[in-house]
Amino acid sequence: MEKNASKKELRVTRKNNRITIHRMNHPSCVSSFLRALQRGIAKGYRAFSVEWIGDLVFPDACVPIAGIIAYYKENRHIDFSYVLSEDSYLYHCGFTEPFIETAEVIESEPYPFDKLYRYNNSSQVAALTQAYINCISRQTECSDGVITGLIWCLNEIMDNVLVHSESGCGYVMAQYHQAKKVIAICVYDNGIGIYNSLKKSPHRPRTPIDAISLAIQEGVGDGKGQGNGLFGLYQIVTENNGGLNITSGSASMMWSSDGEMKKYENLPYITRDYNATAIDYRLNLGHDINIQKAFKSIGGFDGFDIRLDYMLQDDNTIKYDIFSNSMGTATRESGAFLRNDILNILTRMNTGIILDFAGVKTVSSSFADELIAKLVLRLGIIKFNQVIRIINMNENVKFLCERSIYMRIHEAWKALQ
Length: 417
Fold this sequence. Notes:
The strands form three sheets. A seven-stranded antiparallel β-sheet has the order 5-6-7-11-8-9-10. The chain has a four-stranded mixed β-sheet with strand order 1-2-3-4, with helices on one face. Strands 12-13-14 form a three-stranded parallel β-sheet. It has three domains: 1-85, Transcription Regulator spoIIAA, CATH 3.30.750; 98-294, Histidine kinase-like ATPase, C-terminal domain (Heat Shock Protein 90, 2-Layer Sandwich), CATH 3.30.565; 306-416, no CATH class. It is elongated, with a radius of gyration of 24 Å. It has helices at residues 27-42, 59-75, 89-93, 103-107, 122-139, 146-164, 193-199, 208-215, 229-240, 291-294, 306-311, 322-325, 332-349, 365-379, 381-387, 395-416, and strands spanning 12-15, 18-21, 47-52, 79-83, 117-119, 170-177, 182-189, 243-248, 251-255, 261-264, 277-284, 318-321, 353-356, 388-391. By secondary structure, it is an alpha/beta fold. 44% of the residues lie in helices and 18% in strands. It contains 16 helices and 14 strands.
């Protein structure tokens, strides 16, 4: 059994060919797993049983460990079996078999969070980005610049894998932590790594840790792109007071929300030629991102969103179809999802919105309250009338919405007395 940690700090242990994962909530768990696996292989084992007995699962550990297992299965012909409870998070998130979906399937996914995806083309990258953005826009009201910044991070970091890693595929997983209003994302590949990539460039870093420190500088790359992917990510995370971990080969650099930076060297890695890279970042959805400031030196970013592009009218207003964007009109939850989405669109587009109720035959009182009444209170009556226009609402729906507005205003007025 591995003896490098006290019982209190156990992350991963191995007894013969059984690897037990105790924790999966920090990048250090990845190093512990890889050490246990490599030492088991050195002992002559060609098949391993992976057991999970922990609690919390974060993308920064889950994604790289799943990717490492895939590498050893496909390239070293190591067999793996799993000891997992069928009601466990790991059993359902795709840890044992990452989701491989077409762009069309991904686009139709209503909740892409808590799923570990494997992708290998730019269409899947675009679809995953859109799916994450569509979903988070409905989950919570985001601060100014957050969704635009998130689009950049998702597109650039996933695309970096296809352009630079020479691995052929990448792995990605996102979690939405509602209580903290944080989104956590990890992108991983089994490719050549940042050090090997930059060795071919004029920068020629001396060590893997030097390579990571260079990679977050403006314009530094291997010549296959502009070299601003990791630079842009670093700028956005810093502007947002978020968190960022970059691990590649034997080195890792971590930036916390308070600006503290830690670096680690001599970590285990797969091979000299295939260092692998994990990019883990966390954004605060309630903290503004000044996009102009973050991108002042690289020409900005328009945050193109194909869903909003379809809604955009010739007069530069947004026409929002309530029926097609809803998941039903009978529950309070569905009304809240639409309200969040509408508020996020107002923040991003800075234009008027037409709410089209043409396909809506009936709504519940709770739906009307969450969507219309709370939207009026959130914006205020004057601003609501300035930026929101409602069309094609039938009389029954109109009655329920107006009743909900009156009740909300009455409650708010009583609270002031």
